[in-house]
Amino acid sequence: MDSHTMHTHTCGELRRENIGQQVTLTGWVWHRRDHGGLIFVDLRDRDGVTQVSFDPEHSGGEAFHTAETIRSEWPIKVTGTVRERPEGMENPKLATGQIEVLIDAIEVLNSSKTPPFQIEDRLDCAEDVRLRYRYLDIRRPRMMANLKLRSDFTFAIREALHGRDFMEVETPALFKSTPEGARDFLVPSRTQPGHFYALPQSPQLLKQLLMVGGVERYYQVAKCFRDEDLRADRQPEFTQVDIEMSFVDEDDVMSELEDVLADAFARVGVEMPTPLRRIEYWDAMDTYGTDKPDTRLGMELHDVTSIFAESKFKLFAGAAATEGQYVKAINAKGAGAWPRAQIDKLADVAAGFGAKGLAWIAFREDGSVNSPIVKFFSDEEMAALRAEMDVEPGDLVMFAVADRKLADEILGGMRVHMANALNVPREGHDFLWVVNFPLFHWDDEAKRYEAEHQPFTLPTESDVEKIKADPLAAGSATYDFVMDGYEAGGGGMRIHNAQMQLDMLELLGYTVEDAREKFGFLMDALEYGAPPMGGFALGLDRVCMLLAGEDSIREVMAFPKTSSGSDLMSDAPSEVTGKQLKEVGLRLL
Ligand code: ASP
C-alpha cells in the first residue's frame, strides 16, 4: 500500500485476503459494461486493474447514477467494499481477478475527451498518432510496463555500480565540440556571439579528465547527443550508462563490467552467466559475418575457397587464384525446400548487403539438387562442399565471392535475413564480448583513416610499431558488449600519453594546430600525470528494448522522436522569433 495519496490501495493490489474491507481506489475508467441493471467498470492505474461494480439498489443508488454518466478515461475516485466475485465470474488473467469492489460512493475527478485511439496493448493506430498523444500512449499497460522495467534496470545498475565504489559524477551538457565520429548539435552562445557550445556526443573526454582528477571509478547515466541522419532505430538523443576506471588494464575493466552487468541483470530477473565469451573481432566477422553476432542463430560462415581452387566455375576458381578474394558459404537449413521463385528473390536481399549476385545450391528433400551452378562442379568438389557445410536434404547453401570483409558482411546479412525468414528460435539472451577491433578503417570519401572506435583509443600494445607503417593492420584495446545480436555497449582503454595522443590525431589528419585547438585541454591534462585508464558505455535504451522484448528503442523511451528528428507532441524542432535569433547573433540564410 502506498501512502500520501487519495486512495487506500492501488488498482493492482487487492486479493481474496482483502474481502470485507472498505477501500478507496483512484484511477481511469478503462472499460464500462452495463449488465442487467448493474454497471461494471474496469478501473485502471499504473499498477493494474480492478473491477468495481455499481448496484442501483446499493447505498440509495447515488453512486450508480453517477456511474451511468462516466466515460472511458475519466479519472475517478471510488469507495466501497471488497467482495468475492460470483462463481464463474473470476478472471484468472487478472491479478485482482478473484475479487471486485461494490461501490458506495464515487467522485468524478475530471472528464476526458474520447481518446484518438484505444488505450489497449493491441495497437489500432499508426505510431505517429501514438507519438502525438504520447501521454495517452503511456497509459497503455505495455508502455507503462516498459517504463517501469527501464526504471528498475536503471536503478539496478546504479546500485550495482554504487556497491562497487563507483562514484556518479555529472558532466556538462553544454560543452565544446569534440568529434567522436558523428555531427554535433550546436548551441549558440548569447554572451559570446559567434561562439557555440556543442551538446556532448558522449562524456568521453570529460570522464578521461575525471580520471586525471583522481576519481578512479566513475559512472553517470548520461544523455548523449548525435546529429546523424536517423536510421530506423536511432534517436538524436539517447542514454548511456557511462563508466570509466583508472589504474586498470583491459582484463580488469572487462571483469569488473561483467560483475556489474550480471548483478544489474539479476536484479531484474535475467541471468547473465560469467565469465562472458570473448570473440576476437576478425573471428566474429569470419564466423558470423558481423561484429555483433547473435550466436543463437547458428548458421556459421565457412571459408570454402580452397575447395574450388581448380573449379570449372570461373567465378569461384578466379577468386581462389586471387590474393585477398574469398569464396564463403552459409547453410540455411529448411530453405532448400523453398520454391525456385522464392530462392531467386534472395539475390535482391544479398544485393542490399553489397553482393553483385547470389550463387546458391538447394538440396531438395527428395535428394535431388537444384542450382544454376552445380553443373560446373566435379563430384569431388560437391563431396567436399557437402562435408564442409554438413549438408542434409532441405538445406540451402549460399555463397559470397568478394574480399574478406565484404564476403563476411554479405553472408552476415543473409544469415540474419534467413534466420528471420525461417523463424529460427531465439531463446533466452545471448551475451558476449567482441574484442580487439581494428584501430582504424579507411574512409573512402574523406580519403583518410578514421578511428574505428574513437580517436582516444589505446592501440594494442604489440601493434604500436605498425601504426604508421601499416595502420589498417593495427588492433586496439577495445571491447563491445553484444546482447542478442545488438551492440549493447562498447569501450576501450585510452591513450594516457600526450605524445601518443598527438601522433594519433596527426595520423587521423589533424594538423598540430587543429589538434591543439580542438583537444588542447585534453593534451594539457595528459601531461599532468594521467593514469592508465579504460572504460565503457552501455546503451541503456537498447538494453531495455531487449529486456522488454521490443523491436524499437522508441518503445522504451517516454518521449522519443520520429526518424526525421521531430517531436510530434510539441512540434519540436520549431521556428524561433527574430528577437531570439538576434540575441544569439544569428541570421537565417
Ligand atoms: N564514449 C564511447 C562511446 O560513446 C564509449 C567508451 O569508449 O567508453 O561509444
UniProtKB/TrEMBL annotation:
Protein name: Aspartate--tRNA(Asp/Asn) ligase
GO MF, one annotated term: aspartate-tRNA ligase activity
UniProtKB keywords: Aminoacyl-tRNA synthetase, ATP-binding, Cytoplasm, Ligase, Nucleotide-binding, Protein biosynthesis
Site (Important for tRNA non-discrimination): 35, 88
Positions that bind L-aspartate: 180, 226, 453, 494
Domain of life, source organism: Bacteria
Stored InterPro entries: Aa-tRNA-synt_II, aa-tRNA-synth_II, aa-tRNA-synth_II/BPL/LPL, Asp-tRNA-ligase_1, Asp-tRNA-ligase_1_N, Asp/Asn-tRNA-synth_IIb, AspRS_core, GAD-like_sf
Function in brief: Aspartyl-tRNA synthetase with relaxed tRNA specificity since it is able to aspartylate not only its cognate tRNA(Asp) but also tRNA(Asn). Reaction proceeds in two steps: L-aspartate is first activated by ATP to form Asp-AMP and then transferred to the acceptor end of tRNA(Asp/Asn).
Organism whose genome encodes this protein: Olsenella profusa
Subunit structure: Homodimer.
EC identifiers of the protein: 6.1.1.23
Coiled coil: none
Subcellular location: Cytoplasm
Reaction(s) the record says it catalyses: tRNA(Asx) + L-aspartate + ATP = L-aspartyl-tRNA(Asx) + AMP + diphosphate
Binding site for ATP: 226-228, 235, 487, 539-542
Chain intervals for the UniProt region annotation (Aspartate): 204-207
Positions of the Aminoacyl-transfer RNA synthetases class-II family profile domain: 147-560
Main location: cytoplasm
EC class name: ligase
Protein family (similarity comment): Belongs to the class-II aminoacyl-tRNA synthetase family. Type 1 subfamily.
